[in-house]
Amino acid sequence: MKVHRDGSWPIEAAESLLARLRERPQMRLCLATGSTPLPMYSRLAQHPDAFAAASVLLLDEFGGLPADEPASCDATLRRVLIHHVRPADYRAIATDHLGEPAAVDAWIDAGRLDLVVLGIGVNGHLGMNEPGAPAEGRTARVDLEPTTIEGAQRYFEGRVRPTWGVTVGLGDLLAAGEVWVLAAGESKVDIVRRSTEGPATTAVPASLLQHHPDVTWWLDR
Ligand code: PGA
């Protein structure tokens, strides 16, 4: 486990990602939205050719949103990154048909996920894999915990109140070649500590990363 603890982490993380893309232009990435990775994405957006051969999978999506909701995970990632860098392949997650989880799994199975970029919930969730989610789980429709529903109101500003979503499962996140977790702010201090120093348990999904051989935590001070 590597830990970067520095106020300039969005820059450093973006530089690290660009270096990986130069080494392996056809990388397959799974990318989170939420608020934490956005400064890193805006740096990456200044490199319009970096993702030209890369494939990007969206990590998760809220259910029950109007098609034009600007704070959906898909609309957010498109706005901050995809629209600027135009990867060879971009795979969002639909929430309105039953076959979608299997279709996302098929996308993942077409090649290994080289790098997964994650945020972390105050309850330790990764993507929408809430406490208790199975460590070997694959893409699924899931119900959100009250803290996640409340937390998401930062994005939706009262327009909608999603209570469920579709997420890539812990099994595929834990099987990725490399995993990054980005966390910033006081509210994440306790859960980062529990995830990195407490027991590895499905009760704290991010603690399962202790079993992964190549995890980097990007933290602010
Ligand atoms: P945040 O969300 O980056 O907006 O804090 C992270 C998460 O809930 O996974």
- Categorize the overall geometry: globular
List each distinct ligand once. 2-phosphoglycolic acid
The N- to C-terminal Cα distance equals 18 Å
Elements, N to C (H/E): EHEHEEHEHEEHEHEHE
Strand order of the largest sheet: 1-10-9-6-2-3-5
Protein architecture, described:
- The chain is an alpha/beta fold.
- Strands 1-10-9-6-2-3-5 form a 7-stranded parallel sheet, sandwiched between helices.
- It is globular, with a radius of gyration of 16 Å.
- The site of 2-phosphoglycolic acid has 8 residues, from loops.
Features:
3-stranded antiparallel beta sheet, 7-stranded parallel beta sheet, Rossmann fold, alpha/beta, binds 2-phosphoglycolic acid, 7 helices, 221 residues, 10 strands, 32% helix, globular
Secondary-structure map with pairings?
Blueprint: E1 2-5, H1 9-23, E2 28-31, H2 38-44, E3 55-58, E4 60-62, H3 73-85, E5 89-91, H4 100-109, E6 115-118, E7 140-143, H5 146-156, E8 164-167, H6 170-175, E9 178-183, H7 189-197, E10 215-219
Parallel strand pairs: 1-10, 2-3, 2-6, 3-5, 6-9, 9-10
Antiparallel strand pairs: 4-8, 7-8
Helix pairs in contact: 1-2, 2-3
The structure holds 2-phosphoglycolic acid.
What can be said about this structure in brief?
The chain has helices at 9-23, 38-44, 73-85, 100-109, 146-156, 170-175, 189-197; strands at residues 2-5, 28-31, 55-58, 60-62, 89-91, 115-118, 140-143, 164-167, 178-183, 215-219. It is of the alpha/beta class and 221 residues long. Helix 1 packs across helix 2 (38-44) and helix 2 (38-44) runs parallel beside helix 3.
